[in-house]
Fold each of these.
Amino acid sequence: MYARAMTGLLLTTHSLPRQGLVSVVGAMNPCPCGYKGLPEEKCISSPATCGRYAGKISGPLMDRIDLHIEVPRLKPDELIGATDGEASAPIRDRVMAARERQNGRLGSHRVNAKMSPREIREMVPLDKESEDFMKLVMARLNLSARVYDRLLKVARTIADLAGDEQVVKKHLSEAVQYRDRSEGF
Ligand SMILES: [Zn+2]
């Protein structure tokens, strides 16, 4: 269901102007019964069923989703006693500052997501440590070439949010964390 919804949204972007930006957000359970990975519940889905369930979203579609984040279920006391966390205003300021950095580099209204492959090479140069790290990651996680450029764009945005001029290994490793699909997602 979610996969169909996301596919539908992605298809609609074709009719938008070239500069149109659409953020697609989707969510799915870890398995059909929804209990996989929960220590206090028993998952009744077989590994084969879980594999088929995860496989409903194709690899190429998953590749195009930049951030994959696992959201663990909150315990009752975490839910009830939860603090509000960081206020929206300072987060907004950080995002606006990061946008300005991107506009300064790419021109007005252009953001990292819109970088061409050539711009990525120019604006996200990797030092030797970062290059070696990325070679290791690509081989170990068996990621496609398409994902490589997306990782660099996400790392560039992480650096922009932190106010860092250069993309270095710590930005890349954070980007990779949002891409780790070792659990099948
Ligand atoms: Zn299950």
Amino acid sequence: MKPRPKRKVTSQRKLTSEERKLKSAKLSLIHAQKKIAKLEKKEEQIEYEEVNPNYEEPRLNKEAPHILFEPNKGPQTDFLAAPEREVLYGGAAGGGKSFALIVDPLRYCTNNNFNALILRRTNDELRELIHKSQDIYPKAFPGAKWMEKKSQWTFPSGARIWMTYLEQDKDVLRYQGQAFTYIGVDELTQYSTPYAWDYLRSRLRTADPKLPVYMRATTNPGGPGHIWVKKMFIDPSVPNRAFAATDIETGKILQYPDRHTKAGQSLFKRRFIPAKLMDNPYLAEAGDYEAMLLSLPEVQRQQLLEGSWDIAEGAAFGEFRRDKHVIPSFNVPSSWRKFRACDYGYSSYTGVLWFTVDPSTDTLIVYRELYVTKVTAKELAHMVMQAEVDDGNLSYGVLDSSLWHKRGDTGPSLAEQMIVEGCRWRPSDRSRGSRVAGKNEVHRRLKINDETDRAGLEIFDSCTNLIAQLPVLPLSKQNPEDVDTKAEDHLYDALRYGIMSRPVSRSIFDYTPATEAAKWSPADATFGY
Ligand SMILES: Nc1ncnc2c1ncn2[C@@H]1O[C@H](COP(=O)(O)OP(=O)(O)O)[C@@H](O)[C@H]1O
Ligand SMILES: [Mg+2]
């Protein structure tokens, strides 16, 4: 076979190829120039903040620069050490919450099975977190890589942290079929419903016994999700104490279903860790930030500076202060005057409150609550009497006066049915204007006495429903002198009846066992007093 003749490259051909190269290079240059022009235009639009000449880059630890991170004492340390499945670190702005959320997952990054998801509501806010993480992660784990396209960190061990944003509930489908061992949400109250948080819980899974699963959230109070976040993490317990997770609508403990090997046991634990600005020396010392927070309007100031959850825009009792109005429970001395008040509802709720009066200051103290639904008058009578077996003598009980008109199936009024069982009541004041007068009286009781520094009304910390409802009870839009009666107000009504019974520490009408003649016998068999 004849060998194929070598292809001759003519000088003409060479020239055209060079020309083509030149043409494409020119095109690239034009592209690049256009891009530069665009970027320069953008740069012009960026407004640079005035540079503070005294600004010092915050050093992680001034005394020991080789230590990369040291948690602030108190809540930040508690948050990082918390063993509960779901923990909320919430309260004042600047407390060091977001910072803690970024650092928290690092402890597992030596494990190649670790897969974390860290979320914020919007992309802009997320950038802040990414920026902070870029400061810390590569120092903690040399070789840790940020992949912008995937918005993910990978660590030399193979561990991953995906930092992304979740703007709308429906976007949770993005996580369908994925499993995470750690889920962290920064600014949880930015979500107006618990939908995303609940959905994410279903994405929590581990196949590695060395890797427990966690959900962590941080947030300031306020924001569209204030109420549900408060119901889920704050209302069920006192701060910093773990509790069995509850259903936020019914308040019932979430349990394993019947027939499960763990039937009846609670599903998992939650904890709320409160944050204060003063906990974070890195910001608190500077003072400027505090001054800015101090300048905010009352509601926002209490939320962002003091980290108060007990305040909502439009709340009827905005003066409620957990540190003043809630006190640790104690054994009420038997000599103190006691009484109770009740607002009854079958299909909605029944609220009963027990009161005592501290004789040294005449402070009214709510020492017990009962908040139940779907109980008949007879059942309620027994629950009330059961609750007070160790109370000694109760002076009286006030009950919504309409119950003397409402009849049960069997004839006697609901009030009479209770009295027959041995649970005595007298009717509350339901005259015209009594609602507004009652509300004014609640305000008067909530006031702090300058001399004693105590409020006229204190509530035992065990009364979690009253403590949850009172501070966020909204004002009525129609009548700003009253609360919104469509809101959850049964315990408030009971409180109002109790307060309007004009309690004092001792009354000459009180039963004293010393006098034989004073033995109680009802003056009126129907009213029972
Ligand atoms: N343990 C810590 N070590 C070093 N700096 C910290 C620490 N905790 C907080 N900071 C600093 O305080 C600043 C404010 O904290 P941040 O987490 O943003 O507050 P929050 O989210 O509660 O509003 C952070 O940017 C960080 O510089
Ligand atoms: Mg933050």
